[in-house]
Design a protein that fits this description.
Blueprint lengths: L3 E2 H8 L2 E3 L5 E2 L1 E2 L9 E4 L16 E4 L10 E4 L3 H12 L14 E2 L4 E2 L4 E2 L4 E2 L4 E2 L4 E2 L4 E2 L4 E2 L4 E2 L4 E2 L4 E2 L4 E2 L4 E4 L4 E4 L2 E4 L6 E3 L4 E2 L4 E3 L6 E3 L4 E2 L4 E2 L4 E2 L4 E2 L4 E2 L4 E2 L4 E2 L4 E2 L4 E2 L3 E3 L4 E2 L7 E3 L8 H12 L1 H20 L1
Parallel strand pairs: 4-5, 5-6, 6-7, 8-11, 9-12, 10-13, 11-14, 12-15, 13-16, 14-17, 15-18, 16-19, 17-20, 18-23, 19-24, 20-25, 23-26, 24-27, 25-28, 26-29, 27-30, 28-31, 29-32, 30-33, 31-34, 32-35, 33-36, 34-37, 36-38
Antiparallel strand pairs: 1-3, 2-7, 21-22
């Protein structure tokens, strides 16, 4: 269990502490459940009415809420960012691997940096380069000539195909596949002819990839994930997709081939993005968005029908099926009105 004094919390967050510098905390908790020894935070002012009843040892708040805190207060610029920094300091998640397991299979010409850890039954093939402090979890496969930068961690059973490049300080969760073949085929009189995928995947620095996500290698050029991108669980990222700096993508999203997504985009869960299109910087697509055409301007975009009762949905579906008929009737009415106005 990690223990931090409030003075240490102030240093970690860059905040100003009002209260007992020597008091200690061991965990983060929600405001309504926090007890002595806990640190909590207020990021939404509408919940400030609950501050007086909070039992946490310290509450991280903006300056405007400090006087409402019943005990120690840590004034920070952004309480949610402070929360993230404190959880990092208190994190007790074990490493995916420690040392090099005897059952790991490592090619003789693989290059391993300092303090590399490789878990049980992992396979490191010929020509692989692992930077300093890389951690490869149990059961991982790292294919020929792949490069993985320093301080990157792969959790158990990640498969990285040949000639993939992964940058520094990345985190890849279990079951993810990087560098599998893109979906490329030609058709000759009904027979499918496979197109070997000759590109690769290039992943930048500080990229996090969730569990069971698939990132396909490019057909000719590479599939590219730029720095500081965060990718949730169970995404399909097809061949030759390019994802810009700082973009975040939620679970279940599917991105078809040769699509370019700009910088600082936010893609809601279960969205579907068509291939061979471009999405501008700063675009937000809300959950279950269906993107069929390029988006050239920054903004928030939505599609789909929000949940209704089954009775309401059946009425909506019936009306949708009658759109063509209703359009014809509307045009007929407009034509009659024009004739009347011309008379």
């Amino acid at each position: 269990m990690t223990t931090l004094t409030l003075a240490e919390l102030a240093k970690i967050t860059g905040g100003e502490l009002f209260g007992d510098h020597s008091a200690v905390v061991t965990a983060v908790a929600p405001m309504d459940k926090a007890q002595e020894g806990h640190v909590t935070f207020l990021s939404n002012p509408k919940y400030s009415k609950h501050l007086a009843a909070c039992k946490a040892t310290v509450i991280m708040v903006k300056a405007s809420e400090r006087e409402l805190c019943p005990s120690n207060a840590l004034v920070v610029a952004d309480p949610y960012v402070a929360f993230a920094l404190v959880t990092q300091a208190l994190d007790t998640t074990p490493a995916p691997a420690v040392d090099i397991a005897p059952s790991a299979v490592i090619a003789k010409d693989a290059k391993l940096g300092k303090n590399v850890a490789i878990g049980a039954n992992a396979v490191i093939e010929s020509g692989v380069e692992l930077g300093d402090n890389v951690v490869i979890g149990a059961g991982c496969f790292v294919g020929k000539n792949t490069q993985i930068g320093q301080n990157t961690k792969l959790w158990a059973n990640v498969s990285v195909y040949h000639s993939v490049v992964i940058g520094e300080h990345c985190l890849v969760q279990s079951g993810t596949v990087i560098g599998s073949d893109g979906f490329g085929y030609a058709n000759e009189r009904g027979e499918w002819i496979k197109i070997p995928q000759l590109g690769s995947v290039r992943i930048g620095n500080r990229v996090e990839i969730g569990a069971c996500t698939t990132i396909d290698r490019g057909a000719l050029d590479d599939t590219v994930i730029e720095d500081n991108v965060i990718i949730d669980n169970q995404l399909q990222i097809a061949h030759n997709v390019h994802i810009g700096y700082g973009t975040a993508m939620a679970g279940g999203t599917i991105i078809a081939g040769s699509t370019t997504i700009g910088k600082y985009c936010i893609i809601g869960g279960a969205s579907v993005i068509n291939g061979h299109i471009e999405i501008a910087d700063g675009v937000t697509i809300t959950g279950m968005g269906m993107v069929m055409r390029s988006i050239s301007e920054k903004g928030v975009y939505s599609s789909g029908i929000p949940l209704q009762t089954n009775k309401e949905w059946r009425k909506t579906a019936t009306r949708v099926h009658r759109i063509d008929e209703m359009n014809k009737r509307l045009k007929a009415v407009e034509k009659l009105l024009e004739q009347k106005n011309d008379a």
